[in-house]
Design a protein that fits this description.
With 342 residues, the chain is of the alpha+beta class. The chain contains 14 helices and 5 strands. It has 2 domains: 204 residues, 2-Layer Sandwich (Beta-Lactamase); 69 residues, no CATH class.
Length: 342
C-alpha cells in the first residue's frame, strides 16, 4: 500500500474531524445568539406586557408563549404544551391543583381522567419534581422502543405525546408548591432536536414567572423588577447569576466559581460588572443607596432573587427510588452542567 494512500487517509480523517468541530462551534454560537435575542429588552418587554393583559385567557397566553419561543428559536417548534400546578398535601401526597392543556383540541377532563392512573408512575414527572429548575427529556429516563412504553400505549399515544421536555419550578418561598411545564412533540415533529435543552430551560424560566404572575403566585411589581434586571443577558451571564443567587449560606465565591469550572477572577469580575450595570439603572435610588450598592453584591440578590426558582444547576441530579438515568442523559451532561445522579 503506497505512502500516498496513508497520507490521503490521514487528511480525510483530519478534514472530517475539523468539519465536525466547526459544525459544533457554529451550532453552539447559534444557540447562544438565539437565547440572547430572547433576553433582549424588547423581547422581555413583550413578555411583561402580555403577561399583565388581564383580558387574555390561558389559551391566548399559551399561543403567545409558543409564538414567541418559536420566533426566537426559529428551527425549533413544539406541538402541544401542558402546564400543571401541584401542591404537596398534609399527608405528603402530590396533588394536581390546576392543569392547562394547550394545543390539544380535546376536553381537558378527558385528558385528566386518562392521566390520573399514571401520574404516580410518570418517571419524567417524578424526576423533574425532584430537581426543580432542571429541564429533562423523556429520553433521560426511558430507553427502548418509544411505542412499547406502557405509559405511552395507555396514555401518551391517545394525545400525540411522542417527544417530551419537562421542567418544574417551585414557587418562591414555598417549596411544597410547583409549576410544571411540559413541551410535547408529535410523531411527525422533525425539528425536536434542533434546540439546546439548556436554552429551553432558561426560556422556560421566563414563562414560568409569567404563569405564576397570571395565577397570583408572584406579584407584578416583583416580576417587572426581575424581568428588567434580566435585560441583555447571555447564557454565560445567566449561568453565573443563577449559581450566585442559589449559593449556599456562607459559600465562598471561589467555591461557586470552581463548581462552574471557572477561576475566581472569571466569576467575580463578571458578577461585579453586572452589579454595576444594574446600579446604573437605579435612577430612583438615592446617591447614598447607590454608594452602598457599589460595595457588595447584594443588589443582585435584590433585583434577581426570582432566579431562586431555577435552583443551583451544578447540584447532582437526585433520582427518585426506582428511577435510573439513561445513556442519553450522560451525552447531554458532557455539554452542560447537568450534574450526575445521587
Amino acid at each position: 500500500m503506497s505512502v500516498f494512500y496513508h497520507i490521503d487517509r490521514v487528511l480525510s480523517c483530519y478534514c472530517l474531524a475539523w468539519a465536525s468541530f466547526r459544525s459544533e462551534r457554529l451550532r453552539g454560537t447559534e444557540f447562544e445568539v438565539t437565547l440572547k435575542n430572547l433576553f433582549k429588552a424588547a423581547s422581555l418587554k413583550d413578555i411583561c406586557t402580555v403577561t399583565k393583559n388581564d383580558d387574555l385567557d390561558d389559551a391566548g397566553f399559551g399561543h403567545f408563549q409558543r409564538d414567541h419561543l418559536c420566533k426566537t428559536f426559529t428551527k425549533f417548534s413544539y406541538d402541544k404544551c401542558i402546564l400543571r400546578f401541584f401542591e404537596i398535601d398534609d399527608e405528603g401526597e402530590l396533588q394536581i391543583c390546576k392543569s392547562i392543556y394547550l394545543g390539544f383540541g380535546v376536553d381537558s377532563g378527558d385528558i385528566n381522567a386518562n392521566y390520573a392512573p399514571w401520574m404516580n408512575s410518570d418517571e419524567l414527572l417524578r424526576l423533574t419534581l425532584n430537581n426543580p429548575g432542571r429541564l429533562l427529556s423523556d429520553t433521560d429516563v426511558y430507553e427502548g422502543v418509544h411505542s412499547e412504553r406502557e405509559i405511552y400505549v395507555q396514555y401518551g399515544s391517545k394525545y400525540g405525546i411522542h417527544h417530551q421536555y419537562m421542567v418544574c419550578f417551585s414557587f418562591p418561598e414555598n417549596d411544597e408548591s410547583f409549576l410544571s411545564i411540559e413541551y410535547i412533540g408529535d410523531v411527525d415533529n422533525l425539528v425536536w432536536d434542533t434546540i439546546s435543552p439548556e436554552d429551553l430551560e432558561y426560556a422556560s424560566f421566563l414563562f414560568a414567572m409569567a404563569w405564576m404572575v397570571r395565577y397570583k403566585r408572584i406579584g407584578r411589581r416583583n416580576f417587572e423588577k426581575n424581568i428588567s434586571a434580566l435585560s441583555d443577558m447571555t447564557l454565560k451571564k445567566l449561568q453565573k447569576l443563577r449559581r450566585y443567587i442559589n449559593r449556599k449560606p456562607g459559600e465562598q465565591l471561589i467555591r461557586q466559581a470552581e463548581s462552574l469550572g471557572l477561576k475566581l477572577r472569571g466569576y467575580d469580575d463578571a458578577l461585579y460588572t453586572m452589579r454595576d450595570a444594574l446600579n446604573d439603572h437605579l435612577v430612583e435610588a438615592s446617591k447614598a443607596e447607590k454608594m452602598f450598592a457599589n460595595q457588595n453584591l447584594e443588589l443582585l440578590d435584590s433585583c434577581l432573587y426570582l432566579l431562586k426558582i431555577m435552583n443551583d444547576q451544578t447540584r447532582p441530579i437526585a433520582c427518585p427510588a426506582g428511577t435510573r438515568l439513561t445513556p442519553s442523559f450522560y451525552v447531554r451532561k458532557e455539554n452542560q452542567h447537568l450534574g450526575g445522579p445521587v
